[in-house]
Amino acid sequence: VQLVASGGGLVQAGESLRLSCAVSGRTVSTTTMGWFRQAPGKEREFVAALGSSGLITIYADSVKGRFTISRDNAKNTVYLQMDTLGPEDTAGYYCAGRRFVDVRETTKEYEFWGQGTQVTVSS
Questions:
Q1: For residue 86, which phi and psi values (nearest 5 degrees)?
Q2: Around Cβ 98, how many Cβ atoms within 10 Å?
Q3: What is the reported pLDDT for 73?
């Protein structure tokens, strides 16, 4: 299974970005997908997850109402729409997947990982 994240970049505070995670070797419709982020000197933290059913989404409190996770089954791709970005959102963003239907928030619960894409938000 391969996950390739893209879409990161440098934006100003208040702007938006959409990250993509292209999946191969497994269909997103049978995989619970998550997004995590890691800032320099900090541990990797949960951002959002989408259950394999496509019906359940969960978000970290820090991004709730600003970020939206979604998927396109035809493209086998998962997205993270990030609105109203702030400097606190600056981090490397990683997509991840797990075979099980239940949605989890810890890194150890995810089996498949992408390489990460950098998001930098200037104030």
A1: -130, 165
A2: 19
A3: 97
